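Input for the complex:
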Amino acid sequence: MKREQIGLSLGLRLLAILLALLFTVMVLLLSGAPPLEAFRQIVLGAFGSYKRFTDVLVSWVPLLLVSSGLLITFTAGLWNIGIEGQITLGAIATTWALRLLQDSTFPPALSLLLATLAGMLGGAIWALLAGALKTFGGVNEIFGGLGLNFVATALTLWLIFGPWKRPGIGSMSGTEPFPQALWLPVLPGLRLSLWALVPGLLAWGMVFLLLSNTYFGLRLKAVGKNLRAAYLLGVPTWQHMMLAFLLCGALGGLAGSFQVTAVYHRLIPAISSGYGYLGLLVAMLVNFQTLWVAPVAFFFAALNLGSIQLPIVLKLDSSLSGVIQGVLVLFVLLLDGVRRRMERG
Amino acid sequence: MEDLTLLLGFAGIFAFSAPLIFAVVGETLIERAGIVNLAVNGTILLTAMAGFAVAARTGSLVLGFLVGALIGAAVAWLIAFSSITLKQSQVAIGFVLTLLTRDLAYFLGNPYMGLAGPRLPSWHFPLLKDVPFLGILFFQHDWMTYLSYLVIFLGWWWIFHTRPGLILQGIGERPAAAYARGTDVNRLRYLYSVVGGALIGLAGPIYSLSVKAGWKGTISGLDGLGWIALSITIFGGWNPLRAAFGVYLFGFLQWLGLVLQPRLPGIPSQVLQVAPFPLMILTLLLVNIGNAEWVERTLAALPDRWRHFLKRLLRALRANPPASLGVPFEPE
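Predicted:
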């Protein structure tokens, strides 16, 4: 890449951020809120104290896992919108395993390990279902995945209000919490568990190596760039797509599993918390550059955490974080299009 | 009495389905032109909120609907602009916009939550309302419901029975051939995006000003309907008549869920509410599986009698998308 091109691309990125800020300010003014105060509250909400900063890390973990996984499917040219359902199934499978194991004589560490593996398996199976619908049923992965997301939500609700309901009556607050022995250990006085953070970082690193340093990653790129050409060159295309689904689903499942073992300690109705869709935004924003996943996911997690303050302090809806994230990705995509147009002359 | 309740229930399906009819016919027009508007879900939410807010502030229903149509058209225009002029992925922009418009709806709609606002009055069709059965079923609703019948018919007539409709089919199937015959493919794609987007944008205010009057934020029960609209567009095989059948079938299933609810105490209501989604996957599978290669091969191995029957069945169900759906067109 030429020097001017790098400069142009960097300049447009900055412009995108500036435009996103401007848009957000306009939205805030439209709703009659003081923009500066709103931004201040978000920053305070995310970084106001050591505890809050570690809370950002707590929601960084699932986002990191999900976005890394999605880069695998994106590389294979797949839009894995079903990721929300894969997170949910991971949480369900983990809850199922823990329910089975909590009365056994297994040491808690072993139970947790098995439950985590079950979660990864659950997510992978749900992803393979979307993959099979695409490969063998001709159903576009976007619609198959979306449908499966809704099925996963229905399954969660049915379990919470039906077979797994709390003693007495089922409620939206979820299933009965697991005994503390089956919680992933957290740092003293905080909600952050290193047992979730470290695997999240490891997964990110492994996806980076997988995509940039292996033949598998290269073949995946070939499948994603030009399916027909890859097939003619002898790359087993549908097998690679299924494998991409499987890996992404397993990472999504792991994220869901940690939501149960490290965060909520039970199954709740909205266990996936929208991390799947947010992960898709992160993956789009980093544009196949795996290294950028971690900082971008961290920034998004900070926005999410920070905006929780808004309803409390300013009586604003916390969906402002979604507005900022969405409009940022929108302007980056639009300006990227402008840049390509300029390069074509 | 029992019969009347049943009849009124069925009649409700037609009123309740009006917004989805607008959205599905709008999306059908856009996709016929070769563009996918993936932002339907967010568009419906944002236009429902904005339509209600404007109508509540100004007291004018017309302004509420107008704002909805304008927002829908603007979102669809942005997708067309990104894909045609900026050559960006339609799916990516559509997905970002569907999330962004949804969050905008929740954020900006916060002050209007639970407010009382105007509601489209029902208006019974003179004469026709008194026809036995059909009167209650079709003609004792409000204006938007009657317009929804018209939209189905007009969409179908336009696509299949007019010259511009023929050209519309052409730019979605073989844009290069249409271009060679002197059609400005991309200009028409812009045009149909905006028109279809306006129709989608009307769906929101029909909810918030009529079918599910008011704005209740995340518990408005509108989240997800746009995705349903997108899949019914496929189910409908890009034909407004078949799509309308899909919408009414979906409405019927939802109504059935409500009716059966008290009789199935073991199943929580939230589960019945999402019951249509597995059905949606199933129908998508049915309309698509005829296109899969392995199905052809399996069929070829079957005995004749079976093969003919299954082939005919799959062909009847099959829905072929416009050949250039989602493919940008580059004039030479």
